[in-house]
Amino acid sequence: MKKLLHNRFVNVIALIVVLCLLGCQGKKAEGTDNVTVDALTQADDIVKLPDSKDNTIVFTPQWTPQAQFAGYYVAKELGMYDQYGLDVKIEHPTSTYSAIDRIRSNQSHATTLQLLQAMEIIDNGIPMVNILQTSMNNALAIVAKEGNNPLNMKSKRVGIWSAGFDQLPICMNIKENLGLEWVRIASNVNLFLSGDLDAITVMTYNEYYQLVQAGVEITDENLFRFDNSDYNIQEDGVYVTRDYYLKHQMQSKAFAAASKKGWEWTAAHPEEALDIVMKYVNEYHIATNRIMQRLMLEEIIKLQKDHETGKQEFKLKREMVEKASELMHEYGLLANEVSYEEIMP
Predict the structure, then answer these.
(1) Quick one: which of 140, 295, 293, 148 has its CA closest to 202?
(2) What is the CATH number of domain 140-228?
(3) Tens digit of each residue's pLDDT (9 = 90 or more) over 128-187
(4) What is the share, in percent, of the chain residues with pLDDT greater than 90?
(5) Is this prediction's pTM over 0.85?
(6) What distance in Å separates the CA atoms of residue 16 and residue 10, rounded to the nearest whole number?
(7) Is 191 helix (H, G, I), strand (E, B) or coil?
(8) Does CATH number 3.40.50.800 belong to domain 49-137+234-343?
(9) Strands 236-241 and 223-225, how do they pair?
(10) Measured between alpha carbons, how far is residue 3 from residues 7, 12, 38, 42, 173 in Å?
(11) In angstroms, rounded to a whole number, what is the distance separating the alpha carbons of residues 277 and 65?
C-alpha cells in the first residue's frame, strides 16, 4: 500500500512538472495583451530546422494588411515560425508592385493566390506549387439592385475589379449566356452606390460588408453567392515556385505547418487574433476599423470550413482543380489545362 501511494505521489509530481514546462512554452505576442500560445496546440511533430540562411522566407500576401491574412500574422507574432527554425519576413505588395511581381523578381519566396490565379500563372509559364490550402469555398458574390436577380440581368452593367480576380465571373457570364457588360472598377463600391452600375462583384468578406455599412439591403433575391452554386471553386492558398520548392522542401513544409497552426489558433482565439491584425493594419495606415476586420475574419474562417465536414480541412481538392481547369480552358482563359499533379508538390 505504501509503495502504491508512493508511486501515485511520484506520478502527480511528474504531471505537475510536465504541466509547468508546457505552460512555460507559450510565447507572448509583442504588442498584444495577455496573449499566449496554448501549449496544447503545439503538436509533437515539430522538428526545428538546422540553422541555415535558407531558413529565411520572405512571404508576401496578395493584398494590403487585413484579416484575410490573420493566420500568418499570428504565426509570426506568436513565434510559431520560430519554433520550426524559420525566419519569416512578411512584406506586403504595393499598388504598383504586386505579390507575383515580387515572386518573379525573387524578392519574395511565398505568396497567397487564388486557385484560378495560380492556374493562369502556371499556364503563362511560371510553375507554381500549392504548399497549403486555406480556402475551402469561394468568396465571390454578385449583388444587384434591390429586387433584381443577378442571374436574370442579361446585358446589364456589372462592376468587376481592375486588379483581377475576375476569372470565375467571366466564365459564368459566358456559360450562362448573360451577356453582361463588365465595367472595371477599383476596390470600392462607389459606382454601384451612385447608381452607375446595375450590379457589382464583391468578396463576401470585404466589399459585401462595405455595401451593408452603406445601407444597401441585401437579400436572397439580389445576391448570388458562388459558394452556393456549381461555381464553388476554392480560392486562397499559399504558393511557391516549383524551383524554390525543389530546393527548399523542408523550409516550404515547415512554413506550411506553422501557417496552418496560425490559422487554427486564429479560429480558436478570434479576438486575440484581431489584436494582432490591427497592429499590422495600423502600421500600414490602412483605412479600416476593428468592426470591419472582425466581420472579415468571421467570414474568412467560415470559408475555410468544408461544407460537408464543417472543419478547417487545409487541403486542395482534386475535383476542384479539375473543375476549375476544365471551365477556364473551355472558355478561353487557359491555353492548356492545368492538372492536379502540376499544382501540387
Answers:
(1) 140
(2) 3.40.190.10
(3) 999 999 999 999 999 999 889 998 989 999 999 987 789 999 999 999 999 999 999 987
(4) 81
(5) yes
(6) 10
(7) helix
(8) no
(9) unpaired
(10) 6, 14, 35, 35, 78
(11) 8
